[in-house]
Write a structure and sequence with these properties.
This protein is an alpha+beta fold. It has one domain. 30% of the residues lie in helices and 33% in strands. The protein is built from two helices and five strands; from the N terminus they run βββαββα. A five-stranded mixed β-sheet has the order 3-2-1-4-5, covered by helices on one side. The longest helix is centred in the middle third of the chain and has 17 residues, at 30-46.
């Protein structure tokens, strides 16, 4: 299995992610770009690819990032606590 990178980068009008020549649409904030990159990663991994999410650091380097965790809804948390 080959390893591919999915890089989250600042753009003129927000944030984008780039992977193997694919450029996403622009997102107004980093968190939305990260969510979209994580969804892209999940789709590609279901096809057999191994995707590493990375984000550009302040000095221009790339650093691996963990995909966002999905928070449980407060309704399900309340149901579990009762």
């Amino acid at each position: 299995m080959t390893q591919e990178y999915c890089d989250i980068l600042p753009a003129d009008n927000g944030w984008v992610f780039v992977s193997e020549g694919y450029h996403s649409a622009s997102f107004p904030c980093y968190d939305l770009a990260l969510d979209a990159a994580a969804a892209y990663r999940a789709q590609r991994e279901s096809e057999g690819a191994r995707i590493v999410l990375r984000s550009q650091t302040l000095r221009g380097g790339m650093s691996a990032v963990a995909p966002p965790r999905r928070a449980r809804s407060s309704a399900s948390e309340n149901a579990m606590s009762h």
